[in-house]
């Protein structure tokens, strides 16, 4: 507190000093003491605010209307006593600003026999002059010296100090206690095993050195956001029991040239003094992006920082006992020199968890939560394919918040399902009134569900709802039996046919003129999927050719901008568009056929859905088995497109 008070006081003194030695703007009222105005008449005080231009003053002078002139401020300003017919032949006191370069004024005053006098500037107090010119500058210099010294003495101010701008901003913990251990990590067992080996190397190095093994210099964690890369870094910091430095990649790059490289040098200098230790650089792509990539070249400051990082990790001077752990979800843009062995010896891929991994993650996050017996974590894991560890943690946290909102002492199945629906579809809106639009949405969603139930290669229906969520007026969820890492051609076709099922139901039930814009999102998905079948997966008559890659069109991922995105002829582009249209038209035809064949069943399910608004998958399949006996998903589409 006293430090802040002293800083504010010094700042005020600096402002006062600058003000006192600055150039003060002229104010005639201030420059002319009231005692210097000749009290010839009472009109002097009454007319003290009147003014006159210098040109008009010369005219008055030539006409003999000027009686007396008093000069102030080194002849820059004058108080003039004048009397003229324009002024009613009464004496008036007028102010005149005299421009620079009028040295002949006094000569003219003598020529016209004008009574004039010059008044010197009033002398300032000697103590004020001393304080302004000597004392305040000394205080200012001493204050600056104190600020620099205090920034070095107080750790909290070291980052903002101009003297320490090139110092590393990494957080240092000699014995870190992050509260995370390896037992708190689930779903990424392969990545965890790699880090457990590093911990073993740090604790028992002789077991590895006896066979000539060297500890890896760098480990790069690669994977989508939320998969647990930073969590692994916290676990290794806690388990290894060695000094730990943590820093974000963006903290190295500054607008001042050389600051980033200086911070890298300082970081590795401190790390070498505390070896063996671990240095964790989160979001390393901020500083490790490929050099020279992008329009107009790279950022010179960032590239200098990267060059310094490359030198420190494996340069002429070897760093012993310093393990660098990096994390990124954009490994494709990293510089190849950074990825080579000797710098990052290992690349550990942290993928999205599979079904068993999701079960393990849910068990970890359910430890400190009162979960009701009707909640099945296995079923919840089956319902959440593609969820990351962060998503699953957020799901259980949302369920706990909902349980608190409903004043329950434990988390039940209802809160878990609602939390999953919120994360997947968005916050629930107000249900629509029972009108034509609600009936149309019901047919749209049941169309999706019926086609998904008929097709052999499609997933099972999880839930149908007419409750608006996000931007959708209704939703139909499908849950796969297992995690699908490889997708067949028949499965892709089944997805397109089922996605077009909503629009097909609108067309069959209400007629083509009544087809709405509700299927716009469905059309975007099927167009993208059909194009990928042609250009990436080789599932068309064009042949097994990859014409586009996964990052096509994403120009900011570090790719060479000189390479065109579409490196094929226009004739081939026309063939691609033709094949995409044929796939979508074929799937639309099959969707309409299935809707027509099951029209009676659709009408019955729609009436039930309008009553309950939300229908679970088991209830939907029970209605299907009640109304008709469907073949065991006999429809399998593997047709060719000519």
Automatic annotation (TrEMBL):
InterPro entries: AAA+_ATPase, AAA_lid_3, ATPase_AAA_core, ATPase_AAA_CS, FtsH, P-loop_NTPase, Pept_M41_FtsH_extracell, Peptidase_M41
One BP annotation, GO: proteolysis
Catalytic machinery residues: 445
Lipoprotein among keywords: no
Domain of life, per lineage: Eukaryota
Family, similarity comment: Belongs to the AAA ATPase family.
Protein name per its UniProtKB record: ATP-dependent zinc metalloprotease FtsH
Organism listed in the record: Rhizosolenia imbricata
